[in-house]
Amino acid sequence: MTTLSLADFTTPNLLISALHSRTVVGVVNELNSALHLNDALPENLFLMPATVNRELLTSLTMDCGMVISQVRHSALASTRFTLGRAREPLAWRANWLKPIEFVCLIVEPAGRPNEYVEVLTALAYLSKDADILNPLRAAATADEMLTILRKVPLGAGQLTVR
Question: Going by C-beta distance under 8 Å and a sequence separation of 6 or more, which residues neighbour residue 43?
Answer without folding.
Answer: 32, 33, 36
